[in-house]
Amino acid sequence: MCNNKMITFIALLSICSAARLDNLYLPSSGGNGGNGNGGGQNGGGASEEPEIPIISYENVNNGDGSYKWSYESANGIQAQEEGELKEGGEEGIQSAVGSFSYTAPDGTEIKLEYTADENGFVPTGDHLPTSPPIPPEIQKALDEITAAGEGNGNGNGNGGGNGGGNGGGDGGGYRY
């Protein structure tokens, strides 16, 4: 009997201690007043930045895997994409071509064009990083390899060079 009273007492004590959380565990309700001087954040109501109107909007879904959407906002943001379901794979291959543009905070015009298909997402844009230039020594070696590959075949069907066989013109050399 004493054991049941003890379990009941512990359960009641646990419920009472968890019933009220102090403010340091609860999110603030409204503005954050700072140290009582009223300079806080807005509590989720109206934003201080003005709303940017949408100038144009289009969204077409044809139901067969093809679609087209675009929008433009008053602050110069533009985006558009067209997609289709191409043949291939078990259920087809979804492909898309699109672009978007906006002005970065530093005033730079950002424009990105992209394709997305069985080859993955392929973006292009002037702001994207590029690979460093090929060092001159390596470029010279690549040029020599290319020249050697082009000169191997004599075009008469004996296919000299690396590839052997009767390949003719390119002689089985390297291709890029």
Automatic annotation (TrEMBL):
* Regions annotated as coiled coil: none
Q: What is the lineage of its organism?
A: Eukaryota, Metazoa, Ecdysozoa, Arthropoda, Hexapoda
- Region called Disordered, residue ranges: 146-176
* Record's protein name: Uncharacterized protein
Keyword Cell inner membrane: yes or no? Answer: no
- What's in the keyword line of the UniProt record? Cuticle, Signal
Tell me the domain of life.
Answer: Eukaryota
Recorded GO terms, molecular function? structural constituent of chitin-based larval cuticle
The signal peptide here is 1-18
Indicate, by first and last residue, each region the UniProt record lists as having compositional bias (Gly residues).
Answer: 150-176
Source organism: Phaedon cochleariae
Cellular component terms, GO, for this chain's entry? chitin-based extracellular matrix
